[in-house]
């Protein structure tokens, strides 16, 4: 590179020497020897001059700047003397450092802007979600206070409606708490060896009535082993399965089927929950794990969803170093799957 403290002065001195030689050669009465002598003297003197200027004024200052910039990048602002890093080509290094520094800052700013937008949207979403049940319960109670309480039929109906809305509010706040605790890592996974088949059987039993109301059948895939041990947090994996199965019941078709399957593969167990419902359009597939994202806003709300279920599922699986996958075919159904670490078989009583 030309920007070196030795090469640049040589080139500049050569250039000055050539100009001097050309100038003197215009005078025919000056001998060749004189011209050569004058050129050499001009070359040496200008080389020394340029060298001193470059080395001590420009390059040393650039060295200082470069070192300072390196320290700023490392967030160490104390510049001590005699600590300069010697680099071969400070100008281009300085250029690289500045470009690198600027692009990193740019990335940080973009990240911060994204977080800020996310925070603002989240706050707006939470307020909106909280407002709906509070507003409804408030309406029923005020109507009662304003006189509707006298009519026994209306009183019971309105009280039940107010209570239902407060129940929804409770579920929403609990989901919000879970999600924020999972996000800040406050909830640690309490891993143990357990039979996930047995856990799913218990969940089937708990959801029998809910599924029955829509005529939905809950079953295991025919090739699923009768017991399947995994090493995970039993309570949290129970939450994951419940969320996925409840979604299948709510958004799947009436009198449909929900099939749960487990498969051993090397050190892992692959779990899937499949329904034969209407499916999810591909443009929504990436987004359904976002908080409050619903495919059909009003229909999902009517079904009592908080819109946080899949976000919680995603967080729980991430805390198990795993990931949730979804694939869906319109009109055929949806399948959610994930893998968990295989566990040791233990003898459980009862
Ligand atoms: N098995 C499914 N079939 C069709 N749509 C689904 C299914 N599971 C989830 N969804 C869609 O994804 C959205 C997000 O799900 P989720 O986070 O569990 O929220 P919700 O509280 O509404 O159930 C739902 O509102 C629904 O639109
Ligand atoms: Mg749900």
UniProtKB/TrEMBL annotation:
Its EC number(s): 2.7.13.3
Compartments reported by the entry: Cell membrane
UniProtKB keywords: ATP-binding, Cell membrane, Kinase, Membrane, Nucleotide-binding, Phosphoprotein, Transferase, Transmembrane, Transmembrane helix, Two-component regulatory system
Catalytic reaction(s) noted: ATP + protein L-histidine = ADP + protein N-phospho-L-histidine
Domain of life: Bacteria
Gene3D superfamilies according to UniProt: 1.10.287.130, Histidine kinase-like ATPase, C-terminal domain (3.30.565.10)
Cross-referenced Pfam families: HATPase_c, HisKA
GO cellular component, one term: plasma membrane
GO process annotations (BP): cellular response to phosphate starvation
Main location, first listed in the record: membrane
GO molecular function, one term: ATP binding
PROSITE patterns: HIS_KIN, PROKAR_LIPOPROTEIN
Domain Histidine kinase intervals: 125-344
Residue ranges of the TM segments: 7-27, 33-54
PANTHER family per the UniProt record, alphabetical: PHOSPHATE REGULON SENSOR PROTEIN PHOR (PTHR45453)
Protein name, as recorded: histidine kinase
């Amino acid at each position: 590179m030309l920007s070196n403290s030795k090469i640049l002065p040589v080139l500049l001195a050569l250039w000055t020497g050539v100009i001097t030689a050309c100038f003197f050669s215009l005078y025919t009465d000056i001998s060749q020897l004189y011209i050569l002598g004058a050129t050499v003297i001009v070359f040496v003197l200008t080389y020394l001059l340029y060298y001193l200027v470059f080395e001590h004024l420009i390059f040393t200052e650039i060295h200082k700047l470069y070192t300072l910039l390196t320290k700023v990048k490392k967030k160490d602002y104390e510049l001590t003397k005699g600590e300069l890093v010697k680099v071969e080509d400070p100008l281009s290094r300085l250029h690289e450092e500045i470009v690198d520094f600027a692009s990193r800052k740019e990335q940080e700013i973009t990240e911060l802007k994204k977080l800020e937008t996310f925070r603002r949207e989240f706050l707006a979403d939470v307020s909106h979600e909280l407002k709906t049940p509070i507003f409804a319960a408030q309406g029923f109670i005020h109507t009662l206070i304003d006189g509707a309480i006298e009519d026994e039929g209306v009183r019971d109906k309105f009280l039940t409606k107010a209570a239902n809305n407060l129940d929804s509010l409770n579920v929403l706040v609990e989901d919000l708490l879970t999600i924020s605790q999972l996000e800040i890592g406050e909830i640690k996974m309490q891993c143990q060896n357990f039979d996930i088949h047995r856990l799913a059987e218990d969940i089937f039993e708990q959801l029998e009535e809910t599924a029955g109301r829509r005529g939905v059948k809950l079953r295991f895939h025919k090739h699923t082993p009768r017991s399947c041990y995994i090493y995970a947090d039993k309570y949290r994996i129970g939450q994951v399965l419940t969320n996925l199965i409840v979604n299948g019941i709510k958004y799947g078709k009436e009198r449909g089927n929900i099939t749960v399957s487990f498969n051993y593969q090397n050190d892992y167990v692959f779990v899937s929950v499949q329904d034969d419902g209407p499916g999810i359009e591909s443009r929504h597939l990436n987004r359904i794990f976002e908080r409050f994202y619903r495919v059909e806003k009003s229909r999902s709300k009517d079904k009592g969803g908080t819109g946080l279920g899949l976000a919680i599922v995603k967080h729980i699986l991430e805390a198990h170093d795993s990931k949730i996958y979804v694939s869906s075919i319109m009109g055929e159904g949806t399948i959610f799957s994930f893998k968990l670490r295989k566990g040791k078989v233990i003898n459980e009583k009862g």
